[in-house]
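Re: the 839-residue chain
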Amino acid sequence: MSSSQSLDLRLPTPGCYADPVRAGMDADAVFDGMTEHLFFTLGKLATSASLRDLYMALSFAVRDRLMSRYLTSQETIRARPQKTVAYLSAEFLIGPQLNNNLLNLGIKKEAEEALKRFGIESLNEILEVEEEPGLGNGGLGRLAACYMESLASLQVPAVGYGIRYEFGIFNQLIRDGWQVEVTDKWLKGGWPWELPQPDEACLVGFGGQTESYTDDNGNYRSRWIPSEHAIGVPHDVPVLGYRVNSCDRLRLWRADATESFDFYAFNIGDYYGAVEEKVASETLSKVLYPNDGTDEGRRLRLKQQHFFVSCSLQDMLRSLEKRSIAVEEFPNHWTVQLNDTHPAIAVAELMRLLIDQHRLDWDKAWEITNRSVAYTNHTLLPEALEKWDLSLFKNLLPRHLELIYEINRRFLQQVRLKYPGNDLILRKLSIIDEEGGKAIRMAHLATIGAHHVNGVAALHSDLIKRQLLPEFAQLWPEKFTNVTNGVTPRRWVALANPELSKLLDKEIGPNWITNMDLLLELEKKENDSNFLDLFASAKLSGKRKLAGYIHRQTGVLVDPSSLFDVQVKRIHQYKRQHLNALQVIAQYLRIKNGITKNIAPRTVIFGGKAAPGYFMAKLMIRFINGIADVVNADPDMDGLLRVVFLPDYNVKLGEQVYPATDLSEQISTAGKEASGTGNMKFAMNGALTIGTLDGANVEIRDRVGAENFFLFGKTESEIMELRDQGYSPNSFIAESNELQETLKLIEVGHFSNGDSELFRPIINILTGNDPFFVMADFDDYLRAQDEVSKAWKKSKKWNRMALLNTARSGFFSSDRSIREYCQSIWKVKPLPVEISCEK
């Protein structure tokens, strides 16, 4: 071929050139695709294929059908460059992928028909095989997953950047009432949804020292000479939008060593030393959230954060270079969203890459950084706002510390101009915390470097400005905004609740799934007895499924006709699972005392994991299980009260819990929960909320109506007032006979086989400083629970309230959240992907 000739290497138009076996969407094509992958990919014959083989074959066949959309989307961005969202997050709790991709492609029925030809009567048999990807832990990661799905569904170009953890946080077992952590080997059987891209690996440095020099133009420069390196290998996961051609991606980084095997060390008998570098490097992507209770654990966490942030920013800059776009154009092509403080090192790392590698001057580099980066704050808890010890930071990232010092110096100069002579405000705003041991405040670094800072609920965003970062908000009021969280209706209604979805499709048409405002049409049915019965029937179907699961997993029989009262979330004192447990004891005492007239039959369900190093959270799990053992063994409770702790709560289990819930427990101390997303999933699925005015509860109550929400507890301002007055929990205990009896029963060991010391730490905290005001809210919480019981006994009224929760929950779709980010923070627009002649 002559030099004047050129190969056209552009992607063939899918559907015109793609193999019909791999592109066809009917049942025959899906069956043929499965057969092909069984034989050629898995080396199995259909006659000997296991359920897992069939799961893998179907997943590969579905992935084939994603590829035309995935590659066309990438090609569209290259051909028509526009700003792309880079969503940096330590977690992406994406959940199982097969069912979600079948839904978004619109081929669930075709897949079911193909499976029948293999002798599989129900798709659920195959879905049960799929492992939960161990890429996240709680609400932060689940939010990131919802946002990526909405970005694709709204046809907005996006890349989610994170870490490909080999092991998830842990699998939770319950033994003798205690949480036991077991390694989450979610990748042990392979994961069909990832696409390794080793040729796009990045090199990341750690440690070492810096040295100064003068460049050819006479400018002062600093050079970083790391003492160790790791290679980040990207693994791409396609993220398909709902019934659109747009397919975004997660790019997850796996850590490799630069040199995997030292032959010299091996040959002289140092067998561990031969692979030491490989082991040390690969630890970076080994496990989600290593225990930071030790120096080594903290060091590993910081290394993880720098590792994935550096790889991601290098990848973004390289994408410009590939397209011959000047680095100065970075803000026009990438908008970088920091999902909490975990990726906040991006501010310093982007500056390092622009100054040290691309030779930009400081002012230009800072303009690019500030125009590109935005920061979402997810917490008001001081312990959750990351700080890094200065000595650790200097040892691990010496060049970044230099840059942070300079960022801070220049920033404090601005502060001095506004507040001359005010040393107090300088100390408050400085990135360097001078109190106690010196530390880097990552939230300050993110706030200074970002063009926008947002909270995740209206109350939370207000508290950021008033309590968390008030001086920053006064300095830059234009930076601070709110985007209330949302959840995707595709997974959390369409997939999780097929009975409700069918009812919605029939009543208001299928478009509700991408336009949740259409749910408002259901208000017309609030007095339609026939429709309310159908709505209640859909709920009962979900409850029966969950009751079966509970019996299989725990051995506890529960009545699907009872009130399913559910609290599922990470176990933490501020989320107040112990407040819920106390009210269960109060209900137990009432029944034992023969006061049953106003009690509604109730199944109280808990679920959630406690951090391995969080003693009080683990004791709370033991406490709940101790109560369950007593309640469930007492014949007086039959037909009135059951208590269940669901082990190993995750996305897969959540898909069964949300549709089955009648009452959603959102009972955190006012002012402590940033937003919550479980509260939104419950409301969409027709659960009523009992809750405080905290996080997004405030907006849920406003939307669904105060009369359809069970409110209790002190407000955030009342909590602050109590604290300022010198809060004494014992003054509240003294005024409540039921609370006294409840605490006494715990103290004498009634729920711990007579061991009066087991739950002593819980009693000591509640009667001591009670940091989360459990005692202050107990009586009002019990009052609200009595209101719940009264409402439950009027089934038509309850069903009407439940329907209105679903009807008015559309605001809490992640599609709405993403539209707000696109318009007010990212300034990005949809980029539709055309596949012109696909069959």
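Residues 1-17 have pLDDT under 50 and may be disordered.
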